[in-house]
Design brief:
single chain, Rossmann fold, 2 domains, six-stranded mixed sheet, 19 strands
Length: about 475
């Protein structure tokens, strides 16, 4: 049984250059397959086509045929299709319909006609599989990016489709959880014969689970299966290799005045305490990384700074309490969230950059320089919403660079990026921070990224922020 693409002709515009021209491939359900390759090369598009989402909702299928287990997924009813294929998006928040994790699971099971009396056992098994029993009653809006990915994966395992299509399933999950879930997926494949086709830029989580890792490049699959023993080959194709330095080339740090100071900051979601008595200071010109397991509170901390969540204690920006001075500080603090498409204001990619350069007489030249630096110049006249998820994240970070803030806060700025895009984003962000004497704070699950780029590394654990030395993190 397999997913087959036969002479695929597909693109996002009716008359422009197609993304795929004559693409053919077959993925067998007896093997766990991981697709990797440069950002924007079409990996996610293949999953959307196999799930029957494209071309109904985006793009133009100009020729060829897609079948899953011999059926054309786009021709099936939603109920039959979700029994055949289940897909997790890069941004699972776009898939949720209900308010809590438990209600989302119930909703999924109702849609395939599961008897009410059978639901509790299925839900228990799905929550246990993804190690999120403690999130059962939590509001989906209160979850971290990693917790949302686990919740959506729980929904898919509860539906038990013939195929799981996973788009960057570990992008917001810490390494320990990712390895545990990869092992669970292998168990699901072995026990129930579930076909698994995943897209990922990081291979370390898949080494013990995947049967084959294939590179997509220039609209076709490279003939050879990827071997981790060839790190230079992998890096040349934009793949992140575990333990390999990103080799940043940045000006030396020059610490300036303290721009942000936290004093006894605490935060809760409902009755759940997330942050506890956090005290830390951040100085202009320095780069800070925040590490921590999925759900430890990194996004909540950034949400407190942006005004999304109420907090106790004090957060002083330039000596002024954020609660009282937030409106006056507009333009001095910049944020990139885990879902940057929620922040877009421009009709085109270039307009998104120009929005932060309104008062700059050299805006056109600077916008071109920024977009070329993050490899998005060719998309300058395209709507931001037509970019891939990885490209949208690059644009979100680039828009932040253009604003000239004293403090830049980036929540997982490199998730779902290939190696080249990761270094392009981080090199540009960090260089801007150095040149403008801004403080840059970024969260990440990539310890190597933190080691290579940060002047100071913090670890959020048990609701408390700990300073840590680089050698052991």
């Amino acid at each position: 049984m397999s997913i087959r693409f036969e002479d695929l002709q597909f693109g996002y515009t009716e008359k422009g250059k197609p993304l795929f021209s004559g693409f053919s491939a077959e993925f067998d359900s007896s093997r766990i397959t991981v697709l990797t390759g440069a950002s924007g090369c079409g990996k996610s598009s293949l999953l959307y086509l196999a799930a029957g989402i494209y071309p109904h909702h985006a793009g133009f299928l100009k020729g060829g045929r897609i079948t899953v287990e011999g059926a054309a997924p786009g021709s099936l009813s939603p109920r039959d299709r979700c029994r055949l294929v289940g897909m997790m998006f890069q941004n699972p928040e776009l898939q949720f319909c209900m308010d809590t994790v438990e209600n989302e699971l119930i909703f999924c099971l109702e849609n395939i006609g599961t008897p009410p009396e059978a639901m509790p056992a299925v839900i228990d098994q799905a929550l246990e599989f993804c190690q999120i029993r403690h999130l059962r009653k939590r509001a989906l809006l209160s979850l971290s990016g990693g917790e949302k990915q686990k919740a959506m994966l729980a929904c898919l395992t509860a539906l038990r489709p013939g195929w799981l299509l996973l788009d960057e399933p570990f992008a917001n999950i810490d390494s320990g959880s990712a390895l545990a879930i990869a092992e669970k997926l292998k168990e699901l494949h072995r026990k129930f014969g579930t076909g698994i086709l995943a897209v990922d830029h990081r291979l370390d989580h898949w080494l013990a689970a995947a049967d084959e890792i294939r590179i997509l490049e220039d609209g076709s699959l490279l003939p050879e299966t990827v071997s981790i023993s060839k790190p230079e080959f992998l890096e040349d194709h934009g793949i992140i290799v575990p333990g390999r330095s990103y080799r940043p080339d940045l000006p030396p740090p020059e610490a300036g005045e303290t721009v942000l100071e936290l004093k006894g900051l605490s935060l809760s979601h409902g009755k759940t305490r997330i942050l506890e008595d956090i005290s830390a200071s951040f100085r202009r010109g320095l780069i800070y990384a925040v590490l921590g397991e999925s759900g430890c509170g990194k996004s909540s901390l950034f949400g407190a700074l942006s005004g999304l969540y109420k907090y106790r204690g004090s957060a002083l920006f330039g000596g002024k309490e954020l609660r009282k001075a937030r409106k006056k500080l507009a333009g001095q603090m910049g944020f990139v969230t885990q879902n940057p498409q929620d922040q877009f204001v421009g009709g085109t990619v270039r307009q998104e950059i120009l929005a932060g350069l309104k008062k700059n007489p050299d805006a056109l030249r600077i916008s071109e320089e920024i977009l070329r630096g993050i490899r998005l110049w060719r998309y300058r006249d395209v709507s931001p919403y037509l970019l891939s998820q990885g490209q949208q994240r690059r644009l979100g970070a680039a828009a932040l660079m253009a604003c000239g803030c004293r403090l830049l806060v980036c929540d997982e700025p490199t998730y779902a990026q290939d190696r080249r895009s990761t270094t392009a984003i981080m090199d540009t962000l960090c260089r801007q921070a150095r040149e403008r004497q801004a403080a840059l704070i970024f969260s990440t699950h990539d310890a190597q990224l933190a080691k290579d780029y940060a002047d100071v590394i913090w670890k959020l654990e048990g609701g408390v922020l700990h300073a840590c030395s680089q050698p052991g993190l």
